[in-house]
Amino acid sequence: MPIRGSSVSRREFLGHAGWAAAAAPFILRGRYRLFSESNEEYPERVVRLIREELVIDMLNQFLYRKDKETELNNWLSQPGAFKRSD
User: H helices of the chain, where?
Assistant: First the structure.
């Protein structure tokens, strides 16, 4: 039964409802999944911090230095080779 002053056909209503249902997962709720296969969600602030911050990985700084190759090989193969001065 149509509402007074409104003439929306059933077909139009179902079409709009279908679009709304399809768009519902894309509505921003302030929480985001970083990986499609993961169900874990993160707050918008965390995602923004990760996106905007600069991260420098200092764990492998000598990988491309040919002058430190022997030292690097010693550090990786002999646990005691890494001294306080290094």
Answer: 10-23, 44-52, 69-77
Residue 81: partners with Cβ closer than 8 Å, 6 or more residues away? 71, 74, 75
Q: How far is CA 19 from the centre of its chain?
A: 27
Phi, psi of 28 (to 5 degrees): -75, 125
Q: What kind and span of H or E run contains 41?
A: strand 41-43
Task: Read off the pTM.
Answer: 0.32
Tokens of 3: 């509402």
Euclidean distance between CA atoms 23 and 28, whole angstroms: 10
Note the pLDDT tens digit of each residue in 35-52: 878 888 888 888 888 889
